[in-house]
Amino acid sequence: MMERLKNRWIALPGNFRGILWITMGTVAFALNDVLIKLLGKKFGPMELAFCRYSIGLLILSPIFIRLGWSELKTSRPAIHLTRLVIACIAQLGVFYSVIHLYLADATAIAFSRPLFTTIVAVLLLSELVTTRRWIATGLGFIGVLIMVRPGHSGFDPVALIALISACTFAIANVLIRMMASTEPPNRILFYYHAGGSLIFVIPTIILWQTPIGSEWFLLAGIGIMTTIGMSGFIRASSAGEANAVGPMEFIRLIYAVILGYSIFGEVPDYWTFTGAFIIIVSTIYIARDEARGRNRDR
């Protein structure tokens, strides 16, 4: 039976499989944000981050063990360490913003990562960017300003933390591109999870808050949902075309609005929806322009 199911799955169109994978990933990440917001009332971002990395490392350990040290050993420890530190800082900022902002606001601001990636890729990789993509990037940042509203009475400083975290994660993502020629994905995942666990273990011991009852399962859920989300996105990118699969990520905003309202009673204002719409349209265009560029280079 399993073999028949597997054959039927493989027989599905690649884009359809990719959409199903990324849908799984977006649902997992949306549920992960709910867990972070619930647990953030008691546990600090350091302890939440430790759970995220250590549980993820535990889940992925069979893959790492099967690869063995010969496959995991790297000749580029410096760039792994640089990427690890940058990503861990960004992770703390994301957790803090999810805890203190509306889920819809935190999710929409996180969608600005591709905008920052365009700029970071030019600075670090000397990538050539089309005029149209620069225009889309500029419009995207207008959407960010509409959401964040600096200088306005409704401005929330935590939104700035979310924005800086998006920029920092963009730098970490570009560093992955720099490693791609020599470092396979599983090796990057190994150093990211093992290193993240080591970075946060001492702060967690110092700031430790003992979980009670179901809190143990909720903390484990952070690592589980993050790992499921990452797996969904990785498999989606390998199964389908970016133009077809990528836009499905933005359904996560709908989940954030529904979950934020039903669980936390959050009602985003029209500034959130207006800014988010501009950001989403801009990032979809950037993704398609980048995909067209890759096709031309083949």
List keywords for this structure.
single chain, 298 residues, mainly alpha, 0% strand, globular
How would you concisely characterize the structure shown here?
By secondary structure, the chain is mostly helical.
> Tell me about the biggest sheet?
none
The N- to C-terminal Cα distance equals 40 Å
Helix content: over 70%
Q: What class would the helix/strand composition place it in? A: mainly alpha
Mean pLDDT: 89
Poorly predicted sequence stretches spanning 5 or more consecutive residues = none
Helix and strand run: HHHHHHHHHHHHHH
Query: What radius of gyration results from the CA coordinates?
Result: 19 Å
What would the principal axes of the Cα set say about the shape?
globular
- State the total count of DSSP E strands: 0
Number of helices: 14
Tell me what portion of residues adopts beta-strand conformation. Answer: under 5%
Q: Could you please describe the fold and organization of this structure?
A:
- By secondary structure, the chain is an all-alpha fold.
- The protein has 14 helices and no strands.
- The chain has helices spanning 2-11, 14-39, 45-67, 69-72, 77-100, 103-110, 113-125, 131-148, 157-179, 185-206, 215-239, 242-245, 251-264, 270-297.
- The mean pLDDT is 89.
Helix-strand layout with pairing:
Layout lengths: L1 H10 L2 H26 L5 H23 L1 H4 L4 H24 L2 H8 L2 H13 L5 H18 L8 H23 L5 H22 L8 H25 L2 H4 L5 H14 L5 H28 L1
